[in-house]
Amino acid sequence: MNTYGQRDLAFERGEGPYLFATDGRRYLDFASGIAVTALGHSHPHLVAALTEQAGKLWHCSNLFRIPAGERLAERLVENSFADKAFFCNSGLEAFEAAAKLTRKYFSHIGQPGRWRILALQGSFHGRSLSAIAASGNPKYLEGFGPVNPGFAQAAFGNLNELRAAITDDLAAIIVEPVQGEGGIRTAQLDFLRAVREVCDEFGLLLIFDEIQCGMGRTGKLYAHEWAGIAPDIMMLAKGLGGGFPIGAVLATDKVAAAFTPGVHGTTFGGNPLAMACGNAVLDVILEEGFLPDVDRIARLLWEELQALAARHPSVLAEARGAGLMLGLRCHAPNGELMKLLRDNGLLTVTAAENVVRLLPPLIIGEAQVAEAIDILDRSCAGLAQAAE
Ligand SMILES: *Cc1c(COP(=O)(O)O)cnc(C)c1O
């Protein structure tokens, strides 16, 4: 179906931070399949893990124990606030599981009247009827009938509005510490801490959607770690499988206790093939020195982008973001810059607020930063000239 419109570029293979198109052209991939191929393409450790598992066992269902999944859950728990994990296949399914867990938790503790979830404007949590209701974005809701009533919205970063939106039926607040689709909008760390305090004050659960900003993208394993606080529930997907579809919901024991046998499930989620990939991704990201390297290269790219924006004030309004989740807000339509960058060999993704997103794989080095800045410079100069 025509859900993605006209596309005219296809790739044959990938190697680290590069993609090779069917016409032989090489592209520097700062799209990463929308923050999915966190370790670049064809990472030898991931290829080995996937092919080894492919020769042994693909799928057997959650009717049976899946040792690799138990191992991945233990490792995610060991390195986070959480005590338990649930595996599924996508970000959307992680959202759905987090929303269901929230409602079930309040029912479980004898407060079934609390079922609404407050989301923030500009957020993106997926494309199901529930997830589009959560984000409240008219662009995604249009034509899909009555809006699922389980959600409400408050402005991103506005504590007064957030407090004013608290109703008796409210169960949880859901926040992306860095909004991706919403235009690379970084929540102030003080705002995140204040949301945690509001949740504690009103007995609400705090859900962090780290589907895009998690798994090392900001230079820490999870973006919320920068604020020194923890949620009650966290959603993961995108980078967790390095390109293999995985979603996960992590929660504290207190909350996870509401999910008893039979209340939620999935056929494919957490199958041996997916779990082999998830463990392989963690092997690399948790290696000593890996995240500090991400942080170091991210700071270099940040400085370069600030300088770039200053060199091209007629094209770029600002450079913003956190870690390797970066955005260039444009004056001209963002699609124009994205297309020119692509023609010049750099792949990026557009986002709301007229932003071009830069989501390089976490394995880039100085050479890729220099290459990207060179292409950005030439493309911005090209756009400026075309506008004259
Ligand atoms: C991509 C994304 C989702 C949805 O994930 P899918 O795998 O596309 O369903 C949800 N939340 C955030 C923050 C995302 O970036």
Q: Which H/E pattern describes the elements?
A: EEEHHHEHEHHEHEEEHEEEHHHEEHEEEH
pLDDT < 50 stretches:
none
Q: How would you sum up the major sheet?
A: 7 strands, mixed
Structural class: alpha/beta
Tally of helical runs? 13
Q: How many angstroms does the end-to-end distance come to?
A: 39 Å
Structural commentary:
- The chain is of the alpha/beta class and about 400 residues long.
- About 40% of the residues lie in helices and about 20% in strands.
- It has 13 helices and 17 strands.
- It has a seven-stranded mixed β-sheet with strand order 4-12-11-10-7-5-6, sandwiched between helices.
- Helix 2 (about 45-55) packs antiparallel against helix 10 (about 270-285), helix 3 (about 65-80) packs parallel to helix 10 and helix 12 (about 335-345) crosses helix 13.
- The chain is globular.
- The two termini are about 40 Å apart.
- The model has no long low-confidence stretch (mean pLDDT about 95).
- It binds pyridoxal-5'-phosphate.
- Pyridoxal-5'-phosphate binds near residues 90, 92, 126 and 212.
Write the layout of secondary structure elements.
Layout: E1 11-15, E2 18-21, E3 26-29, H1 32-35, H2 44-54, H3 67-78, E4 84-88, H4 91-108, E5 116-120, H5 129-135, H6 138-141, E6 151-154, H7 159-164, E7 170-175, E8 178-179, E9 185-186, H8 189-202, E10 205-209, E11 233-236, E12 247-251, H9 253-256, H10 272-285, H11 290-311, E13 316-322, E14 325-330, H12 334-343, E15 346-347, E16 349-351, E17 355-358, H13 366-387
